[in-house]
Amino acid sequence: MSDCFTEAGFPSQPQSDGSLQIDDGPDDQQEAFRNAAEVCREQSGEPKLASLTQAQVGVLYDLQLEAGVCLRDAGFRTVEMPSRETWVSQYVAAQQSTSTSSFPVTPWDGLHLQDAEESCRQPGLQDVFARMGSGG
């Protein structure tokens, strides 16, 4: 997937933990970045959203709320998160969707990820599993 992002104009580098460090470009390139992400995920066969239980999605919601606090404390303007019930139902519906437009909102929406991640860490699946005590 790294080559796909780089070819789309967003240099990326695989990391030792299996993640991908991607330069998502300046703010005026965020729509192009989201489009490239959708194309690259489709080409790689990677699922658009992880398949999680409702309880796991609830934990992810809590982690996103905590990330939102961190981002606001760091001076970023974040989007308003919907209620837990709404967000969980949106996530569950998006798991079955083929479109990234159905993703539920997160505090990271509209932010330049590279800048935001210098201040706060985006929650991931490992955080959900750690919070639930299952370790993955």
Write up what this structure looks like.
Residues 1-29 are annotated as: Disordered. The protein is mainly α and 136 residues long. It has 2 domains: 1-46, no CATH class; 50-136, no CATH class. It has helices at residues 2-7, 30-44, 54-73, 84-95, 113-119, 125-132, and strands spanning 12-14, 20-22. The chain has a two-stranded antiparallel sheet. Strand 1 (12-14) and strand 2 form a beta hairpin. Helix 3 (54-73) packs across helix 4 (84-95). The longest helix is centred in the middle third of the chain and has 20 residues, at 54-73. The protein is globular and about 40 Å long. The chain starts with a helix and ends with a helix. The mean pLDDT is 82.
Question: What order do the helices and strands come in, and which of them pair?
Answer:
Layout: H1 2-7, E1 12-14, E2 20-22, H2 30-44, H3 54-73, H4 84-95, H5 113-119, H6 125-132
Antiparallel strand pairs: 1-2
Helix pairs in contact: 3-4, 3-6
Estimated radius of gyration: 15 Å
SSE order in H/E notation?
A: HEEHHHHH
N- and C-termini, Cα separation: 23 Å
Give the total of domains. 2
State the helicity in percent bands. 40-55%
Estimate what percentage of residues fall within beta strands: under 5%
* Shape descriptor: globular
| Widest β-sheet, arrangement of strands | 1-2
State the helix count. 6
Structural class: mainly alpha
Rounded average pLDDT: 82
How many β-strand stretches? 2
Low confidence ranges:
none
Largest sheet features? 2 strands, antiparallel
Features:
mainly alpha, 2 domains, single chain, about 140 residues, two-stranded antiparallel sheet, 2 strands
